[in-house]
Amino acid sequence: MSLAPVALFVYNRLSHTERTINALLKNKEAENTNLYIYSDGAKNESEKQKVIELRLYLKTIVGFKSITIREQLHNKGLANSIIDGVSELVELAGKIIVLEDDILVSTQFLSYMNNGLNKYEHELKVASIHAYIYPVNDALPNMFFLRGADCWGWATWKRAWKNFEPNGSFLKEKLIQQKLVSTFNYDETYPFFTMLENQIIGKNNSWAIRWHASCYLKDMLTLYPGQTLITNIGFDNSGTHCGTDDIYNSDIQKINLDIFPDKIVESITARNAFKNFFTSSNPRTNSSIIFRLKNKLKKLLG
Question: Does an H or E element contain 214, and which?
Fold first, then answer.
């Protein structure tokens, strides 16, 4: 099996990075995997020592086929680091697996990712492979597709990444023009469009919402496992966009990784499961009833 390189993006969280590396090394494919580590520069003098300590640790890592460390002299920020790093590596290798320093992977992670990348490499409808699943209450297929893209433990190809559009305003206008805002918001159960608007005005600097919107507008799909293969340990106020909320936490599970779907269509079952999760768990949405009432009012008011 042809193995994709892994890109790991780190900043100053030494303990998180150590745990992420240790989990990745438990994958049997790790010893034949090329690891690229993108280490961002310090934002200020107070954080410089943490960055130095983390970089000293990076130089001690062993267990991969090769390890390449990219140390930035200045702080680029998470979004620019990921956009530039992914762009560089897909040009070099044609495909990529992407992790951040707060993602713990299961022992099946690399197998799932690489098998998915190889199976759908020439399927232009498929944008990416994703490893995380929300802790939904509904039963899910063993593996399934959803429209758009995602950001916690993912993989893609050069042919798909070329669709990434960094201009949030362009993406916003296209979603409006194509009347996709409501479906982009999972039928008004989660404010993805608001996240995009906030990126445009500088309230966040999310690369992920632009990646999702870029693929959504191209009507591309992402493959998901029926149970999560990663867990995020960054909800401790230590990360760029992570607080202390635990509603997205999932236990790493084992699934049947031998059955990849041949039919490349969005799963209505999974989409509804995500909608139910968003509705019940996200305080910003509260109830889909509120959004239905809002939509009715909008129609009445033209």
Answer: helix 208-217
